[in-house]
Amino acid sequence: MNDAGLAGPESLDRGQPAVIFTRAVEVHRLAVAGREPVIARDVGDLVAQVWLRMSRFADAAALASATLTLGPDAGAFYHRGWARSATGQPHLALADYEQALSLYRNVGDRANEAAALSNIGLVYAGLGDRQQAATYFEQALPITREVGNRAGEATTLNNIGLVYDGLGDWQQALAYFQQARPIQREVGDRADEAAALSNTGAVYARLGDRQQALTYYQQALPITREVGNRAGEAIILSSIGLVYAGLGDRQHAMTYFEQALLIRREVGDRAGEATTLSNIGGVYAGLGEWQQALTYHQQALLIRREVGDRAGEAAALNNIGHVYAGLGEWQQALAYFQQARPIQREVGDRAGEATTLNNIGAVYAGLGHGQRALAYLQQALPIQRETGNRDGEASTLNNITSIRVQQGDLTGAMDALHEVLGLVRAVGDRSKEATVSYNMAVLLAQMARTDDAIEIQRQAVALAEVTEHPSLQAMRAFLMHLQEQKG
Length: 487
Known about the structure:
Layout: H1 21-33, H2 37-53, H3 57-68, H4 74-86, H5 90-106, H6 110-126, H7 130-146, H8 150-166, H9 170-186, H10 190-206, H11 210-226, H12 230-246, H13 250-267, H14 270-286, H15 290-306, H16 310-326, H17 330-347, H18 350-366, H19 370-386, H20 390-406, H21 410-427, H22 430-446, H23 450-467, H24 472-486
Helix pairs in contact: 1-2, 2-3, 2-4, 3-4, 4-5, 5-6, 6-7, 6-8, 7-8, 8-9, 8-10, 9-10, 10-11, 10-12, 11-12, 12-13, 12-14, 13-14, 14-15, 14-16, 15-16, 16-17, 16-18, 17-18, 18-19, 18-20, 19-20, 20-21, 21-22, 22-23, 23-24
């Protein structure tokens, strides 16, 4: 249930010829058949860029491959890299981008060299290798400054910020976003200014400061509308929906997701449509309306397969597995998770693989196979640490806590919860800190440590009040129960 991410691939530094698009496709086909490389490359560049913006990734990749039958071409490699990256083929995308980078360097095309470096960084970020991603973005940054590409400089600063966001270094992320914004204002790049505002909102959402997140999203939204960026508007609407879902206001969440869905269908963004369908499915799952959730996740899966998005397909399989787990149909859940895992290995999605391992562990826990569950959860933990996925690590530790409780190992459960508490405090997420503190108080009560339970539950309630936690009333009731129990 996530719609935030790195800025999209940078467009090449070329103009688009004013030709009728439907004729351009046929002109390209004839140019390839007639062995006319110059025409094929120029027209192919136009067509590919349009198709990529429409999520027609398979078509764009096929067109670029046809162009490359006439010999190496930086633009065709670049476009095919973009298409492959978008459809869950990161290693093939890297190979294409590296070819494009070499060709741009050979001719001294510094502007597109920077674009290629940035997009290699995007692929590494998608693979969870954020240090490599930062390396490529930091190579791109001085080139954008050298060629005076202020807009590109701002985009790169934004992407570096998103790497730090992914690493859980929220303050560094905010610092880079704040560097990007004045440049975007200077060059009048209202679209990217909106993106920076949106990314800042996403950081605050991850920090658990949902009101600040809404403030930034609501600044970004009118700008995206002003510049006519319908795709960007859909992303921000989805992000606002996610904040309301996190606040437990599912009606508002659904309203925003449904607005986003209409726009994504209008602009032909099939990949984005699948994301929004997944988000709506997540809301229904949160409401316990499992059949409705299943309907939306299955629609998302069909689209992921249609556009050839293997990584997205694995995510959709995971979501369907989650629904079956919610229904208590553990074997069905396991079947879907086990379909997802080989796809994630195929595309090198280490973060996704860790999520699946966590989910498989949760299923075995539900089946009462505690030791088998722990084996999968303990495989997930080092991958989550390697990829910097603190949320995933916290989720896995929470699952380990539950198993330890089932096994009667309350000390082991408390140790795992202390690790979770350290993670959420490290990122400054006070809402999650409230939840973890509440869980610790429940466990302390089970251990007959009532005084300690009361002390930490008071902290939980205080944090819940500040963050408008959806479980605030339950937390207050539990604190009263503990106090009454003590007498």
